[in-house]
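Box 3.1. Reading complex inputs
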Amino acid sequence: MDKLQLSIQTDDFNIEDEYQYLRQGNSDSGAVVTFLGQVRDFNQGEAVSQLELEHYPGMTESVLKKLLEEADKRWAIDRAKIIHRVGPLNASDKIVWVAVASAHRGDAFHACEFLIDALKTQAPFWKKERSATGERWLDARDSDQDKAQQWMKND
Amino acid sequence: MITLLYFARYREALGQEKEQLELDSPCSLQELLDRLRERGEPWASTLNDNKLLMAINQTIAPAEQLINDGDEVAFFPPVTGG
């Protein structure tokens, strides 16, 4: 089994199955850190009814693969997996899953946070929000750029 | 022949996600962008975005990078996934 995995999918995923994937045949890891991103029903003061996730097939996979390989170089990782959903999503739906299993918690925490921060500024996904007043493409946030930049300074 | 791809708000504003273009001579991303803007609206205003990102063969590339025959060139706004 490849220790670095990624999946771009329209379907939902099951957190228990994903947790078992991190554990299966892997008794080396003393720490599992996971991040789950989900659809908020409110953004910038407006009720959001639906989100549409678009991506650049091919480039998305190669960017995420590179990020996983970079994380694997910087920290001691036993298993890591990124799942990102695309297509229409509703409030409270899961969007993204980043999971890292490591011998110790420091590596797992750092690798997991690096992966989600880098994904947010590098992986070609775009969100469009639908609300009662219409639909709009979301703008990138400077705060996300700042967070991703910090990982480059730490080198 | 090169393939052009447009994503997200650009795809919607231009009303297309993909087109093919014949390159008479090698040109840079900036030169291609200028040519597309010269088509007039909606190209001129849609692609006149200082946050526009460009990729050649699925890797982000700077404006001065040269495009070769057969390349896939993509235009997209800053990413908002996660």
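In summary: The interface with chain B takes residues 37, 53-56, 58-59, 62, 84, 95-96, 116, 119-128, 137-140, 144 of chain A (CB under 8 Å).
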